[in-house]
Fold:
Amino acid sequence: MSDSPNHPENATFAQLGEVLHNHQSFVLISHVRPDGDAIGSQLALGFALLAAGKNVRLINEDGLPDNLTFMPGSEKIELPPAEPLEVEVAIALDTATKPRLGDRALHAASRAKLWLNIDHHISNPRYGDLNLIDSTSPATGQILYQLIIAAGLPLPAETRDAIYVAVSTDTGSFQYPSTTAKTYEMAADLIHRGLDVGTINSLIYDNYPFRRVELMRELLNTLQISADGLLAHWELRDQTRIDLALLPEDSEGLIDIIRAIRGVQLAVFFEELIDGKIRISMRSKTRKLDVCQIAMEFGGGGHALAAGIRMAGPLEDAKAQVLDAIHRRIQAADL
Ligand code: 5GP
Ligand code: MN
Structure:
């Protein structure tokens, strides 16, 4: 478990461990619209460092989403302060590109002398002074588990639970092909360390607000499937967001419903954002159709089987461009 991910440009666990041990003040940041792996990664490493006696701030451009307030220690997640923090080290977690940390969060971390970038997105351009990018890891939380163990940092209860939430939410509950024996061995170790699996799963998966199910109904009314049955997509309009008083996290994971249709190889979710931009979320069932490649055509990124884009609207134009690119890729993929 203590091997460093094998990439010539990666820092080793030993190098990162040295940075963590030899500095006193840290700011940990994750991406805008944070998910379970983003917040989970901040809490996992944050509480390990706190238990080691460090000064730690955990900031996120969008703050803590409502669906993750059950996570022990999550009250430590703050909105970026207006003035830059006096910290030695900034650590970007689970964030594929530096701008995805958000302008206010970047400003808050601007006095840091050293940047660490720890992530599992293959498209990550290695924007840190030290980088640890392991695209074979199903979640950043799993990389942090390995790092914490390898560096001999404490693993308090908040860290234990956060690692589990990070990995569970990024693997569709230990289902996606990125889930390996290492992932299950890690989960077993967390249970040995006192993790209450039943309770935490219930808090993650049996605890949705009613408006999320209403959103599901609205989305189903927009569902379209291609004539060959390979592509399914649906969309969320601004008006629906207003009518149902939706929060950004309410749509998290719903794309898995259409990804699960038999025969569908590619699922796409189009969403009008408050700022007028369009968010596109894509899931593939096959490595022959690499959605990260499609996303990168439009300035987005992610993983081979799960990727996203944020692009200019209006929805109809964005949809036409992305569906066109998808159809080209499907033709070329020879499924
Ligand atoms: P989701 O569809 O769950 O929002 O994102 C799927 C994956 O794609 C995540 O790993 C996420 O980090 C990445 N991703 C989503 N949206 C964007 C984006 O606008 N830009 C980049 N670079 N990556 C994205
Ligand atoms: Mn992740």
User: Anything to note?
Assistant: The pocket of manganese (II) ion (ligand 2) is lined by residues 37, 94, 120, 139-140, 170 (CB under 6 Å). The domain at 210-333 is CATH 3.10.310.30 (Diaminopimelate Epimerase; Chain A, domain 1).
